[in-house]
Amino acid sequence: MTDRQATTTWTGDLPSGSGETSLDTSKLTTFAVSWPARAEEAGGKTSPEELIAAAHSSCYCMQLSALLGRAGTPPERIRTTATVSFGPKSGGGYEIKGIALAVRATVPGASPDDFRKIAEDAKETCPVSAALTGTTITLDAELE
């Protein structure tokens, strides 16, 4: 088993406060976070939803690459954009409304139908997708 760790320190109330999220395991960087960056314009800061999108797009690429390789059609290139939608929920509060994955790939020897089937399988079996089963995940997959 492998563990990864990030830490966020928050100062102040929700509307005017802010925080910093550090990537503790890799020690790559620290991200500034705030409620306005989450619910309005990013303004040079990130949000939990953007971090989820980063995790989902990278996990999905890895899963799709593995499945294409197992099918005998290893990819040359995969580019996945994950869009996480966040907004008010009925009855108050906020929620993740859904995640849209858009993948474009160069896969020599793969037919469009086979690629779409494998891409859908990757969406279902990607560990991050599995962790996010409480939300709707859509997929738009095309060969380049």
TrEMBL record:
GO terms for biological process: response to oxidative stress. Residues 1-25 are annotated as: Disordered. Residues 1-11 have a biased composition (Polar residues). GO terms for molecular function: peroxidase activity. It comes from the Bacteria. NCBIfam families: osmo_induc_OsmC. This is Osmotically inducible protein C, OsmC.
